[in-house]
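User: C-alpha coordinates for this one?
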Amino acid sequence: MGKTAALQVIYTNIGRGHPYYLDGIVEAMRDNYADRLELMSTDVFALSGGWGRRLWRLARYMYHTGSQGGMTGRFYERIRRERKADRPGRAERIMARDLRGFVKEQSGPVLVAHPLLASMLSDLAPVYYQHGEVAVPREAAVAGCAKVYVPLETSADALVQFGLERSGLEVSGLCVESRLVPAAGRAYGNRLERLRRNRFLTGAFFSSGAEPSGHVAKIIMAAESLIPTEHKGVIFCRAGGRLEYALRERGLAGDDPQKTGLEVLAFRSRREENELTLSVFDRFDYFLGPAHERTNWAIGLGLPMFVLHPTIGTFSPLNHSFLINRRVAVDIASEKDAAGFVSKLDRLLDSGALADMARNGFNQYRIDGFSRIADSLVRDMG
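Assistant:
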Protein backbone atom coordinates (compact mmCIF):
# COMPACT_ATOMS: atom_id res chain seq x y z
CA MET A 1 0.00 0.00 0.00
CA GLY A 2 1.38 3.42 -0.91
CA LYS A 3 1.61 6.22 1.57
CA THR A 4 -1.63 8.21 1.67
CA ALA A 5 -0.32 11.56 2.91
CA ALA A 6 2.70 13.55 3.99
CA LEU A 7 2.77 15.33 7.35
CA GLN A 8 5.27 18.04 8.25
CA VAL A 9 6.23 18.02 11.94
CA ILE A 10 7.72 21.28 13.23
CA TYR A 11 9.47 21.41 16.61
CA THR A 12 10.49 24.40 18.68
CA ASN A 13 13.23 22.32 20.35
CA ILE A 14 13.21 24.67 23.32
CA GLY A 15 12.97 22.92 26.68
CA ARG A 16 11.66 19.38 27.03
CA GLY A 17 7.88 19.56 27.39
CA HIS A 18 6.54 20.54 23.97
CA PRO A 19 9.19 18.50 22.07
CA TYR A 20 8.44 15.50 24.30
CA TYR A 21 4.80 15.51 23.23
CA LEU A 22 5.72 15.65 19.55
CA ASP A 23 8.28 12.86 20.03
CA GLY A 24 5.55 10.60 21.40
CA ILE A 25 3.21 11.17 18.47
CA VAL A 26 5.99 10.69 15.92
CA GLU A 27 7.07 7.45 17.60
CA ALA A 28 3.50 6.12 17.61
CA MET A 29 2.99 7.02 13.97
CA ARG A 30 6.26 5.39 12.90
CA ASP A 31 5.49 2.28 14.94
CA ASN A 32 1.92 1.88 13.70
CA TYR A 33 1.62 3.68 10.36
CA ALA A 34 5.02 3.70 8.69
CA ASP A 35 3.42 2.38 5.50
CA ARG A 36 0.54 4.88 5.52
CA LEU A 37 2.05 8.25 6.31
CA GLU A 38 5.21 10.05 5.28
CA LEU A 39 6.64 12.03 8.18
CA MET A 40 9.04 14.94 7.70
CA SER A 41 10.47 16.59 10.82
CA THR A 42 12.30 19.88 11.24
CA ASP A 43 12.57 22.68 13.78
CA VAL A 44 12.39 26.46 13.95
CA PHE A 45 16.17 26.88 14.05
CA ALA A 46 16.70 24.88 10.85
CA LEU A 47 13.95 26.81 9.06
CA SER A 48 14.85 30.32 10.18
CA GLY A 49 17.61 32.70 9.18
CA GLY A 50 18.67 36.24 9.92
CA TRP A 51 16.64 38.07 12.53
CA GLY A 52 14.15 35.24 12.77
CA ARG A 53 16.81 32.79 13.93
CA ARG A 54 18.30 35.39 16.26
CA LEU A 55 14.90 35.87 17.91
CA TRP A 56 14.36 32.11 18.26
CA ARG A 57 17.77 31.90 19.90
CA LEU A 58 16.73 34.73 22.20
CA ALA A 59 13.57 32.80 23.07
CA ARG A 60 15.70 29.79 23.97
CA TYR A 61 17.99 31.98 26.05
CA MET A 62 15.00 33.52 27.83
CA TYR A 63 13.64 30.05 28.58
CA HIS A 64 16.87 29.05 30.33
CA THR A 65 17.62 32.34 32.08
CA GLY A 66 14.04 33.38 32.77
CA SER A 67 13.47 30.23 34.78
CA GLN A 68 16.20 31.21 37.23
CA GLY A 69 14.21 33.99 38.92
CA GLY A 70 15.44 37.55 39.53
CA MET A 71 14.74 40.48 37.21
CA THR A 72 15.10 38.38 34.05
CA GLY A 73 12.71 35.83 35.48
CA ARG A 74 10.09 38.45 36.31
CA PHE A 75 10.36 39.91 32.81
CA TYR A 76 10.03 36.43 31.27
CA GLU A 77 6.96 35.64 33.38
CA ARG A 78 5.33 38.91 32.34
CA ILE A 79 5.92 38.17 28.64
CA ARG A 80 4.36 34.73 28.97
CA ARG A 81 1.34 35.95 30.92
CA GLU A 82 0.57 38.82 28.57
CA ARG A 83 1.17 37.13 25.22
CA LYS A 84 -2.04 36.56 23.27
CA ALA A 85 -2.13 33.62 20.88
CA ASP A 86 -4.24 35.53 18.36
CA ARG A 87 -2.32 38.84 18.54
CA PRO A 88 1.26 38.34 17.39
CA GLY A 89 3.65 41.15 18.14
CA ARG A 90 6.36 42.47 15.83
CA ALA A 91 8.98 40.03 17.16
CA GLU A 92 6.66 37.08 16.65
CA ARG A 93 5.90 38.18 13.09
CA ILE A 94 9.64 38.23 12.35
CA MET A 95 10.06 34.80 13.98
CA ALA A 96 7.23 33.47 11.83
CA ARG A 97 8.44 34.84 8.47
CA ASP A 98 10.66 31.96 7.33
CA LEU A 99 8.39 29.34 8.89
CA ARG A 100 5.45 30.68 6.91
CA GLY A 101 7.46 30.67 3.70
CA PHE A 102 8.38 27.04 4.29
CA VAL A 103 4.78 25.98 4.99
CA LYS A 104 3.52 27.79 1.89
CA GLU A 105 6.02 25.84 -0.23
CA GLN A 106 5.06 22.52 1.37
CA SER A 107 1.30 23.09 0.98
CA GLY A 108 0.37 20.19 3.25
CA PRO A 109 -0.79 19.52 6.81
CA VAL A 110 1.44 20.48 9.74
CA LEU A 111 1.73 19.01 13.25
CA VAL A 112 2.93 21.20 16.14
CA ALA A 113 2.86 21.04 19.92
CA HIS A 114 3.42 24.69 20.79
CA PRO A 115 0.69 27.35 20.74
CA LEU A 116 3.03 29.94 19.27
CA LEU A 117 3.69 27.79 16.20
CA ALA A 118 -0.01 26.97 15.88
CA SER A 119 -0.92 30.66 15.88
CA MET A 120 1.83 31.48 13.35
CA LEU A 121 0.76 28.87 10.80
CA SER A 122 -2.94 28.06 11.18
CA ASP A 123 -4.06 30.43 8.39
CA LEU A 124 -1.72 28.81 5.83
CA ALA A 125 -2.28 25.07 6.13
CA PRO A 126 -4.27 22.51 8.10
CA VAL A 127 -2.51 22.71 11.48
CA TYR A 128 -2.93 19.86 13.94
CA TYR A 129 -2.02 21.24 17.34
CA GLN A 130 -1.38 18.99 20.28
CA HIS A 131 -1.91 20.63 23.63
CA GLY A 132 -0.44 17.86 25.74
CA GLU A 133 -0.68 19.40 29.20
CA VAL A 134 -3.61 19.00 31.58
CA ALA A 135 -3.08 22.68 32.41
CA VAL A 136 -4.66 25.16 30.01
CA PRO A 137 -3.45 28.76 30.34
CA ARG A 138 -5.05 31.35 28.07
CA GLU A 139 -2.01 31.38 25.76
CA ALA A 140 -2.87 27.79 24.74
CA ALA A 141 -6.14 28.83 23.09
CA VAL A 142 -5.33 29.04 19.37
CA ALA A 143 -8.22 29.41 16.94
CA GLY A 144 -8.23 28.30 13.33
CA CYS A 145 -6.50 24.93 13.72
CA ALA A 146 -7.73 21.89 11.80
CA LYS A 147 -7.87 20.10 15.15
CA VAL A 148 -6.62 20.61 18.68
CA TYR A 149 -5.79 17.51 20.73
CA VAL A 150 -6.19 17.79 24.50
CA PRO A 151 -5.66 15.13 27.18
CA LEU A 152 -8.82 15.45 29.28
CA GLU A 153 -12.39 16.69 29.08
CA THR A 154 -11.50 19.35 31.65
CA SER A 155 -8.77 20.59 29.29
CA ALA A 156 -11.31 20.82 26.48
CA ASP A 157 -13.75 22.68 28.74
CA ALA A 158 -11.08 25.28 29.55
CA LEU A 159 -10.36 25.93 25.87
CA VAL A 160 -14.07 26.31 25.17
CA GLN A 161 -14.23 28.91 27.94
CA PHE A 162 -11.40 30.75 26.16
CA GLY A 163 -13.47 30.86 22.98
CA LEU A 164 -12.57 27.76 20.95
CA GLU A 165 -15.29 25.68 19.30
CA ARG A 166 -15.85 22.31 20.94
CA SER A 167 -16.19 20.66 17.53
CA GLY A 168 -12.52 21.43 16.80
CA LEU A 169 -11.24 19.70 19.94
CA GLU A 170 -10.47 16.02 20.38
CA VAL A 171 -9.81 14.40 23.76
CA SER A 172 -6.94 11.93 23.42
CA GLY A 173 -6.35 10.80 26.98
CA LEU A 174 -3.06 11.34 28.79
CA CYS A 175 0.10 11.15 26.70
CA VAL A 176 2.30 8.65 28.52
CA GLU A 177 5.37 7.07 26.92
CA SER A 178 4.01 4.31 24.69
CA ARG A 179 6.40 1.69 26.04
CA LEU A 180 5.05 2.21 29.56
CA VAL A 181 1.41 1.73 28.61
CA PRO A 182 1.16 -2.08 28.05
CA ALA A 183 2.76 -2.90 31.40
CA ALA A 184 1.19 -0.05 33.39
CA GLY A 185 -1.12 -2.33 35.39
CA ARG A 186 1.63 -4.78 36.30
CA ALA A 187 4.03 -2.00 37.25
CA TYR A 188 1.37 -0.31 39.39
CA GLY A 189 0.54 -3.57 41.19
CA ASN A 190 4.21 -4.22 41.97
CA ARG A 191 4.67 -0.63 43.16
CA LEU A 192 1.62 -0.75 45.40
CA GLU A 193 2.85 -3.97 46.95
CA ARG A 194 6.23 -2.36 47.72
CA LEU A 195 4.51 0.69 49.21
CA ARG A 196 2.49 -1.60 51.46
CA ARG A 197 5.32 -3.87 52.59
CA ASN A 198 8.75 -2.30 52.03
CA ARG A 199 10.49 -0.16 54.58
CA PHE A 200 12.88 1.34 52.05
CA LEU A 201 12.00 2.76 48.64
CA THR A 202 13.57 3.90 45.37
CA GLY A 203 12.75 7.37 44.09
CA ALA A 204 13.49 9.20 40.84
CA PHE A 205 14.67 12.83 40.80
CA PHE A 206 14.16 15.10 37.76
CA SER A 207 14.73 18.72 36.87
CA SER A 208 13.10 20.59 34.00
CA GLY A 209 15.00 21.33 30.81
CA ALA A 210 15.93 24.78 32.11
CA GLU A 211 17.36 23.36 35.36
CA PRO A 212 16.34 26.33 37.56
CA SER A 213 18.85 26.89 40.34
CA GLY A 214 16.12 26.75 43.00
CA HIS A 215 15.05 23.32 41.77
CA VAL A 216 18.62 22.07 41.49
CA ALA A 217 19.35 23.03 45.10
CA LYS A 218 16.22 21.23 46.37
CA ILE A 219 16.96 18.10 44.31
CA ILE A 220 20.44 17.90 45.83
CA MET A 221 19.17 18.44 49.36
CA ALA A 222 16.34 15.94 49.05
CA ALA A 223 18.59 13.28 47.51
CA GLU A 224 21.29 13.81 50.13
CA SER A 225 18.73 13.31 52.90
CA LEU A 226 18.42 9.68 51.73
CA ILE A 227 22.12 8.86 52.13
CA PRO A 228 22.13 7.99 55.87
CA THR A 229 19.19 5.62 55.28
CA GLU A 230 18.62 2.54 53.15
CA HIS A 231 16.36 4.43 50.75
CA LYS A 232 17.72 4.70 47.22
CA GLY A 233 17.50 7.41 44.57
CA VAL A 234 18.07 7.72 40.84
CA ILE A 235 18.95 11.27 39.70
CA PHE A 236 18.58 12.23 36.04
CA CYS A 237 20.64 15.16 34.76
CA ARG A 238 21.71 16.72 31.49
CA ALA A 239 25.37 16.02 30.74
CA GLY A 240 27.28 19.26 31.24
CA GLY A 241 24.26 20.98 32.76
CA ARG A 242 23.67 22.84 36.01
CA LEU A 243 22.41 19.80 37.92
CA GLU A 244 25.31 17.56 36.91
CA TYR A 245 27.74 20.32 37.90
CA ALA A 246 26.08 20.65 41.31
CA LEU A 247 26.17 16.88 41.81
CA ARG A 248 29.89 16.86 41.02
CA GLU A 249 30.45 19.76 43.41
CA ARG A 250 28.80 17.68 46.14
CA GLY A 251 30.84 14.61 45.23
CA LEU A 252 27.80 12.64 44.12
CA ALA A 253 28.22 12.31 40.33
CA GLY A 254 30.39 9.33 39.52
CA ASP A 255 30.39 8.16 43.12
CA ASP A 256 29.71 4.52 43.93
CA PRO A 257 25.92 4.04 44.18
CA GLN A 258 26.55 1.18 46.57
CA LYS A 259 28.11 3.65 49.00
CA THR A 260 25.58 6.50 48.79
CA GLY A 261 22.45 4.76 47.55
CA LEU A 262 22.26 7.43 44.82
CA GLU A 263 22.66 6.60 41.13
CA VAL A 264 23.30 9.49 38.73
CA LEU A 265 22.23 9.02 35.10
CA ALA A 266 23.49 11.74 32.74
CA PHE A 267 22.04 12.11 29.24
CA ARG A 268 22.97 14.13 26.15
CA SER A 269 19.67 14.14 24.26
CA ARG A 270 15.93 13.63 24.76
CA ARG A 271 16.22 10.20 23.18
CA GLU A 272 18.98 9.15 25.58
CA GLU A 273 17.04 10.56 28.53
CA ASN A 274 13.94 8.60 27.53
CA GLU A 275 15.89 5.38 27.05
CA LEU A 276 17.55 5.72 30.46
CA THR A 277 14.22 6.51 32.11
CA LEU A 278 12.40 3.58 30.54
CA SER A 279 15.21 1.18 31.45
CA VAL A 280 14.79 1.80 35.19
CA PHE A 281 11.18 3.01 35.46
CA ASP A 282 9.85 -0.18 37.05
CA ARG A 283 12.08 0.44 40.07
CA PHE A 284 10.45 3.77 40.94
CA ASP A 285 8.20 4.00 43.98
CA TYR A 286 7.77 7.80 43.69
CA PHE A 287 9.36 10.70 41.87
CA LEU A 288 10.34 14.28 42.59
CA GLY A 289 10.27 16.96 39.91
CA PRO A 290 8.59 20.12 38.58
CA ALA A 291 4.91 20.11 37.59
CA HIS A 292 5.40 19.73 33.86
CA GLU A 293 4.93 16.86 31.40
CA ARG A 294 5.83 14.09 33.86
CA THR A 295 2.78 14.94 35.95
CA ASN A 296 1.06 12.46 33.61
CA TRP A 297 2.82 9.70 35.56
CA ALA A 298 1.24 10.85 38.82
CA ILE A 299 -2.32 11.06 37.48
CA GLY A 300 -2.08 8.22 34.97
CA LEU A 301 0.35 5.57 36.23
CA GLY A 302 -0.14 5.76 39.98
CA LEU A 303 3.36 7.04 40.70
CA PRO A 304 3.29 9.39 43.73
CA MET A 305 4.86 12.78 43.08
CA PHE A 306 6.76 15.35 45.13
CA VAL A 307 6.39 18.71 43.39
CA LEU A 308 9.36 21.06 43.24
CA HIS A 309 8.72 24.74 43.90
CA PRO A 310 8.68 27.41 42.70
CA THR A 311 6.11 26.52 40.06
CA ILE A 312 7.51 28.45 37.10
CA GLY A 313 5.72 29.68 34.00
CA THR A 314 2.03 29.56 33.10
CA PHE A 315 1.56 25.78 32.91
CA SER A 316 3.24 24.58 36.10
CA PRO A 317 0.99 26.34 38.67
CA LEU A 318 -2.14 24.95 36.97
CA ASN A 319 -0.69 21.45 36.75
CA HIS A 320 0.25 21.73 40.42
CA SER A 321 -3.30 22.61 41.43
CA PHE A 322 -4.64 19.63 39.48
CA LEU A 323 -2.17 17.28 41.18
CA ILE A 324 -2.98 18.51 44.67
CA ASN A 325 -6.73 18.37 44.04
CA ARG A 326 -6.40 14.76 42.86
CA ARG A 327 -4.37 13.92 45.99
CA VAL A 328 -1.53 12.34 44.04
CA ALA A 329 1.23 14.76 45.05
CA VAL A 330 2.71 16.72 47.94
CA ASP A 331 4.91 19.81 47.87
CA ILE A 332 8.61 20.39 48.27
CA ALA A 333 8.08 24.11 48.65
CA SER A 334 11.16 25.24 50.55
CA GLU A 335 14.74 24.27 51.24
CA LYS A 336 13.58 23.19 54.69
CA ASP A 337 11.16 20.74 53.01
CA ALA A 338 13.98 19.48 50.81
CA ALA A 339 16.47 19.04 53.66
CA GLY A 340 13.83 17.09 55.62
CA PHE A 341 12.65 15.13 52.61
CA VAL A 342 13.43 11.68 54.00
CA SER A 343 11.40 12.39 57.16
CA LYS A 344 8.42 13.44 55.04
CA LEU A 345 8.86 10.33 52.90
CA ASP A 346 8.92 8.04 55.92
CA ARG A 347 5.83 9.65 57.44
CA LEU A 348 3.87 9.22 54.21
CA LEU A 349 5.06 5.65 53.85
CA ASP A 350 4.32 4.62 57.45
CA SER A 351 0.87 6.24 57.48
CA GLY A 352 -0.18 4.58 54.23
CA ALA A 353 -0.60 7.99 52.56
CA LEU A 354 1.97 7.21 49.88
CA ALA A 355 0.03 4.10 48.86
CA ASP A 356 -3.15 6.20 48.83
CA MET A 357 -1.47 8.67 46.47
CA ALA A 358 -0.64 5.79 44.14
CA ARG A 359 -4.25 4.52 44.21
CA ASN A 360 -5.60 8.01 43.53
CA GLY A 361 -3.48 8.24 40.39
CA PHE A 362 -4.21 4.95 38.68
CA ASN A 363 -7.02 3.91 36.33
CA GLN A 364 -8.68 7.32 36.44
CA TYR A 365 -7.93 8.37 32.85
CA ARG A 366 -6.92 6.82 29.57
CA ILE A 367 -3.14 6.78 29.13
CA ASP A 368 -2.83 5.88 25.43
CA GLY A 369 -3.02 9.43 24.12
CA PHE A 370 -0.07 9.13 21.76
CA SER A 371 -1.45 6.16 19.85
CA ARG A 372 -4.97 7.67 19.76
CA ILE A 373 -3.63 10.90 18.24
CA ALA A 374 -1.70 8.87 15.66
CA ASP A 375 -4.91 7.00 14.79
CA SER A 376 -6.83 10.25 14.47
CA LEU A 377 -4.23 11.88 12.23
CA VAL A 378 -4.18 8.93 9.86
CA ARG A 379 -7.99 8.91 9.67
CA ASP A 380 -8.10 12.63 8.94
CA MET A 381 -5.49 12.43 6.21
CA GLY A 382 -6.96 9.20 4.89
